[in-house]
Amino acid sequence: MTKHILVIQGSPTKGGNADMLADAFIEGVEAAGNTATKLTLADMNIAPFTAYDQPADDMTQVMEQMKAADGIVIATPTYWMQFSAQIKAMMDRLPFDAHDDLAGKESALLVAGASPEEVLTKNVFGYYQMCFGESLGWKIKGSVIAAGVFAPGQVAATPYLDKARELGREF
Prior knowledge:
Strand content: 15-25%
Number of strands: 5
Distance between the termini: 13 Å
Helix content: 40-55%
């Protein structure tokens, strides 16, 4: 059975390290005979959470695609050892009943950051596990923590893109 994977890319830098990890992951997904859609949050209008009666914006589309996907992958650069503002805005806007709609989704995390791997694992992957694994009940199938990359495209000279492709094939 073919799976459809939604890759939510949270970098504002097209062709940046997180974007490249997302594309490599999608190559792996497609090589395995599955399909993938990449949502680049920087291209969308997702307002910060302000109230329960939030005005309509692109978050409705994000939620619809999350519900329809068999798996959801978060790809993010790190800022101050945490998710990008684009990912955080999406997270803050997940409805309070999101657990009911998204529980049990398969998931993975793709992270790019200048910090050492142990720092990114502790801060970013730990937060991901808490928010998506524990709070939403997602089944975490893996991660690629691309440490020591800062300048856009720097990840290309590392083994991390191959790791992302492999994770996509296994997903």
